[in-house]
Amino acid sequence: MKAIINAKLIVNNEAVEGKVLLFNKHIVDIVDDADFTIPLDTELMDANGAYVSAGFIDMHIHGSGGADVMDATLNALETISSVLLQTGTTSFLATTMTMSTKDIDKALQNIQLHKDDVSGARILGVHLEGPFINAAKHGAQDKKYVQRPNLALIQNYMDEVKMITLAPEVEGSESFVKLLSQKYPNIILSIGHSAANYEKCKESFVWGISHATHLFNAMNPYHHREPGIIGAVFDSDVTCDIIADLVHTHPSTLDLVYRLKKDKLVLITDAMRAGCMKCGEYDLGGRKVLVEGNKAMLTDGTLAGSVLKLNDALKNMTTVGAMTLPEAVNAVTKIPAQKLKINKGELTKGYDADIVIFDKDFSIISTLIAGEVKYQK
After folding, report:
1. Is the alpha carbon torsion for 129, 87, 342, 212 positive or negative?
2. pLDDT (tens digit, 9 = 90+) per residue, 131-153?
3. pTM exceeds cut of 0.90
4. What does each C-alpha distance from 257 to 168, 194, 239, 324 come to in angstroms?
5. Which residues form the domain of 48?
């Protein structure tokens, strides 16, 4: 057994001290420090007063460390998996792009074959971002590859697909959403890259859409006479995610979303291959991307994913408004885990011992997966 001592544990929506976290591959218990007698075979980890939480979960990430999910190789997945450890990320959804059917199939097949072969952050499955989107809201996706919803594209990978971003106003979406909601209820259906109006959004929530992808981006802006997707999300209990890099969304807007959505808000990175890399020229979905500072842009100035790290998203959200540290941590642990219906995201007895230790500035000190230290600063 192992134990973490001298920590501020993020549990039950607060940071608690005077406790000891016991674990092996799973969380064993949390006990009072005063009542803890160290068994002879216990391996101690001293947090030295740092914060300890469940490992971070990124539901939307295309790449990092120079690699991209669409590279469709084990080496690419291993690179992403390894690099993410330094950001406190212990699991993620490998996110695809709107590209050719052949390229998407290769990426899905690669994940199916190798998702359990990576040594770092665990691959929970696939987030299919497109190609079932609205070409008018393609963003950094290549609109020439946009297609109508087509079950045949993913039929061989239903165990791997955990989330699909699509536009409900596109022809064929209604039957597609209803079919998946009935036959594959564990797949998260998310509205995104869409021009749907308020009424269509609310209707699609009844069909089975329960989430919104990178709120505000690749959708019509909120308008007092046409509230659109944003208004529908604010006016419902669906969850949503947001890129808190202070580039995609203004700080005041981030705070507003937090105040309105609270425990329905998930923080993501939408990072591309330039994540954790130097500034320069990269690509995303076969399109040239220029990275300058904390911005990743196509040559026409369109934002192309991000270079955000999940620990920096937490730092940003706790400095721009009223979000507390435990609430921010929940937005990358408990809330996405509950959405994905997995036993991760909480320091709770029986849950996976995916753990991160970080300081007051969210700098990562240690990252553990299944109780094993995978990263040490």
Report:
1. negative
2. 999 999 998 889 999 999 999 99
3. yes
4. 22, 19, 11, 14
5. 2-52+348-376
Q: Which two tokens stand for residue 42?
A: 């216990």
User: Tokens 């969304």, residue?
Assistant: 249
* Structure-token pair, residue 212: 């919104």
User: In the structure encoding, which two tokens stand for residue 194, read together?
Assistant: 């869409």
Active-site amino acid positions? 270
Overall number of domains in the chain: 2
Residues 195 and 322 in one domain: yes
Both 149 and 230 in one domain: the answer is yes
CATH number of the domain within which 15 lies? 2.30.40.10
Q: Are residues 297 and 357 in the same domain?
A: no
- Write out pLDDT tens, residues 263-293: 999 999 999 999 898 889 888 888 888 888 8
Indicate whether 238 and 359 sit together in one domain: no
In terms of domains, do 302 and 371 share one? no
List residues bridging with 79 in a β-sheet: none
Residue 37: DSSP 8-state: -
Residues in Cβ contact with 324 at an 8 Å cutoff, skipping those fewer than 6 apart: 318
Task: Kindly report, residue by residue over 223-252, the tens digit of the pLDDT.
Answer: 999 999 999 999 999 999 999 999 999 999
Extended beta strands in 85-177, E state:
89-96, 122-129, 161-166
Identify the residue whose tokens are 């959505």: 261
Whether omega before 221 lies within 30 degrees of 0, making that bond cis, reads no
- Does residue 243 sit in the same domain as residue 105? yes
Residue 18 burial by CB count (10 A; 0-12/13-18/19+): exposed, middle or buried? Answer: exposed
Distances from the Cα of 272 to the Cα of 195, 276, 323, 374, angstroms:
24, 10, 26, 22
pLDDT digit string, tens, across residues 347-370: 999 999 999 999 999 999 999 999
Structure tokens at 176: 């597609």
The position carrying tokens 């529908």 is: 232
